[in-house]
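ok so heres the complex, two chains, lmk if somethin looks off
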Amino acid sequence: MKKMFSQSVIFYLALGLLMLSSIPSLFSQIAFTRFYGKNKVQYSHFRWNYLTTDHFKIYFYSRNDDTLKLLISITESAYKKLSQLLKHELKEKVPLIFYETYTDFEQTNLFQVSEGVLGVAEPVLHRIAIHGDLPPDELQTLIEHELSHIFQFDFLWGKQEGSLYALREPPLWTMEGLSEFITGKWSSWSKMIVRDAVLNDRVPEFSESGELVSRYPLPREPAYDFGHALYEFIQEKFGPNAINEFWRALKNFPRVSLFTRSDPWKRSFGITLKEFSQAFRRYLREKHRKFYLRENPADYSQPLGPEFPSNPYYFAFSAALSPSGELAAVLTYNARNYDLNIVLVSIKDGRIVKNLTPGYTTRYQSIKFQIDPSYGQNLSWSKDGKTIAFFVRKGQKYALALMDAFSGKILRQIKIPLDEPASPSFHPTEEALIFTAFKAGRRDIFRIDLKSGELRNLTDDKVYEKSAEYSPDGKTIVYTIKDGEYDRIVISPALNLQEKTKLTSGLENAICPHFSPDGQRIFYSGDGLEAFNIYSIDLKTGERRRYTDVQTGNFFPSPVPGKDRLLVFCSFNKGSFQLFKAEPEGVPETPVTPEPFEPATNSLLSQAEKIQLDPNKFSSYQGIGKLYLTYRPPIQAILTSDGSFYGSSAMAFSDLLADHNFIFTFSQFREFRSYYFSYLNQKRRFQYMLTAFQYNLFYYPPLYYYDPMLYEYLTYRDALAVRSLSGLSFDAYYPFSLYYRAEFSLSFSRYSEDFFNPALLAFYGRGSYGYFTNGNYLSASLALVGETTFFKEFGPLDGHTFRLAITQSIPLTSSYISNTTVTADVRKYFYLGADSLIALRWEGFLSRGKTPFAFYWGGNNQVRSANFYNIIGNEGWYFNAELRFPLINYASTIIGTLGPVRGVVFFDLTRARVKGYPALFYEYIIDENQLRLQSYEAIGSLGYGFQVFFLGLPLHFDLVKPLVLEKMSELTGLKSKGNLRLRFWIGYDF
Amino acid sequence: MRPRFKLIFLFIVLSCSLSSLTSCLSENALKIKADFPRYTNLKLDDFPAVVLTNFLVEQSPPGFDLNQELITYFLAELKQKYRGQLTQKNIVWPEEKKWDDPQFWHNLLGNDSQGLVLTGTASFKQELRKTLGSKDYREIDGPFRLGQPSLEERTVSTLTVRFFLVRPEDGQVLLKKEYKETRTAENFREPAGIAFFELVQLVKTKFFNLLFARELPEERYLLVRDSEQ
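and the predicted structre for the whole thing:
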């Protein structure tokens, strides 16, 4: 296949990444089928400024003095705290890049950010990037956590860029655990995860390398919560200075200790790792002793599921009851499809009635969910029973999706121009819905009119509202407010949310409020007993009852309509949330006395108000600024079986915000060198790249172009053909959405192709091979690219991918290569379920003009009956149809883990035409003892095979029956030719 | 290599291999690796009680309470290692000190001290040292590596601690040891506490080796008794 110069930015980046990932290209055949990638859309153009403080450079794009003062206050006090605790000072100011919202943070070029990430600290330039969709105390915790990482990086590897040369890293828990420990706070969520693991004897263990490994699934990486517990244990057991001594011992760990003889545990703590692990478990058990006698959800309730692995659904993130009380819509994770689904579960017996969101969709990017229960339910079921509402990620922001409760059809999507929407709640009678969301740094309750789409902020205050719900009559709203350190439950008249009445108080977090069907009681989850239990408050009498005394946590209590005492709730048990139902009696607790809500004084905000901003410390961040090496230059060195040597390396530089990137790569195979240099600007939505390159490549032209007389005299070396390509290119790309984009390219190349030893072949008489391209080539190209394809570990699963491109040469003189080239690559995948799919591909190319390009294809999964790249043409196409299905997921063998093993039934067909010749394939056949030239308009293959993943590479074994077709107009004339042949190749599926 | 020398070389290699093999095959001794406690002059665990007193501070940077930092640090560290009763007490240091006179110690520490007394003197000094150095740089447009004069500044911190372990009943000094540790830091704005912490850890490691029997891995041969003997 001719290399195209209208390459997408993504492809170049993918190419760069491929080279930089140090995966050796062991085999000469294609290792990867080309996919075009989805887009990272820069919706906003950030105009950065920065503010210099004693220890930080705070980068911001939107001047909000209150926010800046808060940041200065929090960052400097965090620095002081960490410096004193860790007995360490940083040598350079820390760049802190502040994004106002998560959706802005996601657009950073510094790293790949996924949903749920609050902040990142990176070890090369000691940068911290965070977003501000948080209440002040959580922002403080986040900054302390990330700053702690910077101290760790500085401590271990010294100055900025020092980590580039580190050969090893300490175990993850040593870093994440310390960052959590430093904050001095345990979230209810983290405490629950640890408690659950201890009580169910699922505490993660240490591997030989000292990493924390859990045999059982956990809601998040054990390094955080169990790392935190480990540091508390170290401090308690080994003294207040033990943590510092441990880190000083770790300091030698990364570079020196590749072949360490001494046991670092013994050095730091005087005991072996095994003894340390046992002591840690004893410590945890002792610490949680008082919870052993508390209830397990199974003691008093009936599980409703989802029951992984009986079905593929794992984790009930949220559940909304139907108005009739017979069904629950549950947001859950489909472990087979690696996707979130909404399923209907029967309240009667927990049976999965239906998956409302099967397969994959491009109508929205993903379902928005909040794993923290204090932000309320993720789903709401309308009172008429017809509609389920939930939030989805769509484009830059979000949308409210209204789905038919039984068919799963998305009825409507209403754009929500706010951040982090959560807790949808239908009005019982009007066509309206309330929810909470962020706007301009504050979290409020919003009301949306479902008819007109009108959005109204109902609270518009400095109070942090987290979850909200309408009463059954629609006249009252109950919601959770973050008040100081605690979550409180508050009610207000629906028409006046400024009138707030507080229902809970004291040293208790009260979350997930939910009205009873008669509106007389409010059920909620409270952690007054250190674990979240279910409570209720009678709104008339103030009577409070507690229904559970659980070991871990119960959330989202929902009384079932029509059933007197039946409650459905989510319980956290054995590392996951599950739905349960119970009819608890409850015990009386201290009655509540509702009182007007007065927000607690926020000490962080009070401290921030005292700060004076110095206008001299503000600067504008313009241009490229200083450039930094972004990663350690990889070095690849490969010796092939014919004695050829391949070597390559790459260097990449970027500015502080990674908006401007420079890449230089160098490679050499035998004596053929290639260079590549590029500058990528990804500051805005319209991104462009300037490239300069020189490639020197070699290949073997098909042998039938050589005079057969030469076969006995020529060596492989003599048969080489060399292509030299040097030039410049300007590439631009504009993403329309996550899936589609336009690409433009303007490039100049100088081609030079010939046999490696033309004189030798001239001496012996050259063959009639005349498809070398020589000359200058100036071209402009335009392409439309789309990719909605979903992938699993074995390849594509559903969706489509396409690239349509046209390239027009611009011959400045008559010696310029002149042609018009059109290419099309269209693929469609039909997911059949259970990892089976039908994959279709049509790829066509056409090059016409004075010097049309030649395309090469064949072999692998293009045309299986042909040899690799043995079909040549200036015009042509090939079509593939494959049925792919799983055979074995994984097999443990003596030579390693094999798998997955997948089967395939395939069919392909191709046609080709060389300029000046008819579009035919020829072969000599013996017909009635006479040699005759037979022609076919198309050739193809039919057959079956299987694919095995081994050592990370996909190996294919195909049994191929060649097909021939004499006339395209007579497709029924397709006939097989010859016997089944076994073909082996290595590569990913298209 | 010439064939004759090749043969000799091969013979030597084989002989060495065979003899070491023979020694491995010997049934008289077995080589093991195990943890063995180090010998200490004085085992603190043999004494039921230790009293840690305030240190006599000879020099300390302004704003840095050296005595308090030493007490806090050694109290915490001794609690981890020492199994007996550990207490802290303040004493008033006289003008005249006679470090080798038992009467001096007896008078100073008195009869009411329960157990051994750990005390001493301490000095913590920080100096900013400057020197004219040379920074190498390479011209962008030339091949030469040039040196540019530059002023280099370092903070040198020195911690000196002299420990006395005294039996107050008779004023006998059971152990007297002085440690001096130095640290150089490029960041001259670094607070005193950070340098102190790094230095006191070194002092502690060395001092505690004298007081507590530390186990270290060592190789030993176990002699195997012949069954016929």
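quick notes: The beta strands of chain B are 29-37, 49-53, 56-59, 85-89, 116-138, 145-167, 172-185, 215-223. thats all i got rn
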